[in-house]
Amino acid sequence: MPAVNTHDVIIVGGGSAGAVLANRLSEDASRKVLLIEAGPAYTSVDFPDVIANANRVGGDAAHDWGYRTQDHLGLGHDVRALRGKVLGGGSAVNAAVAMRARASDFARWTARGVKGWTFEDVLPVFKSLENTPTGDDDWHGRTGPFPIRQRTMEENTPSMQAFVLAAEAAGLARVSDFNGSEQNGVSPYPLNVVDGRRINTGMAYLTDDVRRRPNLTVMGHAEADSIVFSGSRAIGIKLIGGETLTGGKIILSAGTYGSPSILMRSGIGPSSHLRELDIPVVVDAPIGNRLKEHPFYYNVYALKPEAISMTPAAGAIVWTNSSEAGPDELDLHVSGTHIFDPDQSPTGGAIVLACSVTLPRSNGSIRLASRDPRAMPLIRFNFFQDPSDLRRMMEAVKLSRRIGRTAPFSNMIEMEMFPGKNVDEDASLEKAIIEQVDGYSHPTSSVPMGSAEDPTAVVDENGAVRGAENLHVVDASIMPDIVSAPTNVTTIMMAEMISRRI
């Protein structure tokens, strides 16, 4: 017989949402909370350099699931689907950019029939989660657990400073605070980095004091197979080793890839897909049909020898609108970083101007490859399925290249490496973008929120799975639509918000 542990709440996944929920739900000393994390559950001071060092992005094989998409049929190549396998999840391996979603993002959620998620609803929660010493009090919190620090021009490398100044010279406004009243323009960006250390949610929310709470258990190296049901009532979690953990409420926070995979293995998903895999259907639900991801293209420049400086790695961004953006939408990013192998540059140094369409219209998908919990799911981003996404990416890359040709940035550059000076016609540029497109590591919306009348939605506005009892999903997978910013801070906010409701 498997061992049985009884808890009031079991949270599956200790990432950007799960660590927040574990902290907030265990504040009630009478509530027994279990957090299970498939990767290592380091204490706040024991995270290795590959995770804690903000200049190292993407983790390593020991802290990633190794997922890749199945996009070769459409794009000609698959795309890495980064998924942190460590306490802190994606927040432990990302570039630590701490930019909120905008009011227009939440207006789109509301337009889909989702209640309680207007910008007026969420701004107080954004403020409450952060401790930020700068910026306007109307927009910022000072005492929350999550540190957000505005990077300054002086902290950036000379070429990153030149990127900002060249973007201004190319006609973009200087933004003082992307988490303030105005976002259209260019600036160094805010990060959850303190003294060079990426502060992930495992560090910020699961401090030693929190982990000493007698009613909170954090279990590392505990990988979930499936949800245990009694009828349609969730009563526990089965681990891949066979052990069953029982709980009064089950919350999946395993991320945009993990949460839908666990649900489908448990019998919640598209019934035809589940029957193909001989999985008994508990709830026929449209899981995995509205997956979103930001497409990312790297416009890379070799730095002149006298301008070679690549630390700190992350630094500044252009956030603006394409010619096809809706009212008050900012659907383009050009993100300046030094996240590039210097050995690949002919001069030994490089800067990347990474271009993205932040409001893509193409829908991806996620399905199970098999019932085996160790099998990588079938993920498709379907980049450029909607032609407007490619048109707008072309606008982003042309803007990036225009900045690249503008002083003082152009004075720092030896040569354009990608796409390269020979790629100057629209047809050849489109071809280069399609052949080299990557993902921004911002997947969302595989288990989307929606009204009871929305046939494409899976959970309600509090993350409760429709058709099941005592089962919630709380992570980026429940976003009704992708937001136009990096997703991490918005995911943290969602966990804060829902922790107050459930």
Automatic annotation (TrEMBL):
Its cofactor is FAD. Keywords: FAD, Flavoprotein. Residues 84-107, 255-269 form the Glucose-methanol-choline oxidoreductase N-terminal domain. InterPro entries: FAD/NAD-bd_sf, GMC_OxRdtase, GMC_OxRdtase_N, GMC_OxRtase_C. This is Dehydrogenase. Belongs to the GMC oxidoreductase family. Gene3D superfamilies: 3.30.410.40, FAD/NAD(P)-binding domain. PANTHER family: CHOLINE DEHYDROGENASE, MITOCHONDRIAL (PTHR11552:SF147), GLUCOSE-METHANOL-CHOLINE GMC OXIDOREDUCTASE (PTHR11552).
